[in-house]
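Cross-check.
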Amino acid sequence: MSTKEHEDIVLSICIPTFNRARYLESLLGEVVANIQKLEFSYEILIGDNCSEDTTPHVVEGFQDRLNIRYFRRPNNIGSGENLNQLYRSAKGRYCLYLADDDLPILDEVSNNIATLDANPGVGVIFAPWAIHDKPSGQDVSQFYTLDGDYLIETRDYSKLLALLVTRHIFPEIYMARREVLTSLYFTPNKYAFWAFVHIAEMLGRYSVYFSAKPFYRSVSRYFEDETRTQAGMEEVKDAWDRYRGGLEYLFGKFAGDLSAEEKAEWQGAIDQFVLLRMSVALRIRTQEGKNWIDNYFIANRIRCLGGDQYLPVPYDVYRVNAAFEHFATLTPFLPQQARRAYLQSAPPQVFNYAQEFNNTEFLVLENEHADIPANTLVLSQESSYPLAGRVLANVISLSEGELLAQFP
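Predicted model, tokenized:
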């Protein structure tokens, strides 16, 4: 490609993919139908992470309708490195990441390109994104909102952090000058959320701009027969400590110049952000009705941050279900599996509150004189449950009080 042709490409749309032929085909079809809304020259870079489905065939079917450059990886190099290599292969003045199951709003993409052209000091434009239901063609919600556009000047880290925590912004969707992206570290880090780290590094070299208008649609349901679980929904269930790490990384850019009182105030703002994310995570996990011991400890962390009012259900629900999960998974008689039993005339009260334990089998003892088989855990209302019947080896009696005491 000549230098002139290289300069003529304004936008590189970078699409990493892996075994998502059905979604990629639908996305490219939508781009074909709307590409006239993009007022600038473009290229579409597709990074195929060694897919085992019909992805190569799908791409071939659009080569004559879109300006596509297709990169078939010889092996799966990971999602982060796949995207990283697309950015480094891009020839456009600007780059836009596009998931293979999302949609661009191309007229707003054009508006943002015009803004970047008019403001050479701005390296990146961030924006909220619409949550979209594709079968109905409707935007059903929006991930964060802004009351206007915001410009953050280079190295004004405190202004950026204030905007992020007060508006509860995740800076994941953006358009950037190509040279901005070549300096970023794309390997995932489990201690600091990548989006907060990236925007901190971007701001060290360029001004960043937040537009109130979305230019991106995150598709929550792509097809009528949708069965997938979105990766973002899975991440939110346990990512709050990475969010904290990313915000504290940004905070560290200017914390050294603050007094102890000012640091405490900023740390409190970060705590509040994390508290809200933990409450969202716990709400999703509570709806799933499993992993109650984990949920119990999350509820405790929320209470520690002063967020009792953010608990999705009363705290005792977590206590009781964690205790019940503990009892249902005890294996004190290995290699023999444990039976579980209770007295018919005095069923444990935790049964009234326990959720999603229908698969736990219980032997119901007719009365206190019933024989108890070997390797049995007996759950009773009282600690003084009388084992009056014929008791074989390896029988343990636990009261509800003893069980709940482990989850105060």
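The chain has a mean pLDDT of 91. The longest strand covers residues 11-17. Passed to J.P. for a second look.
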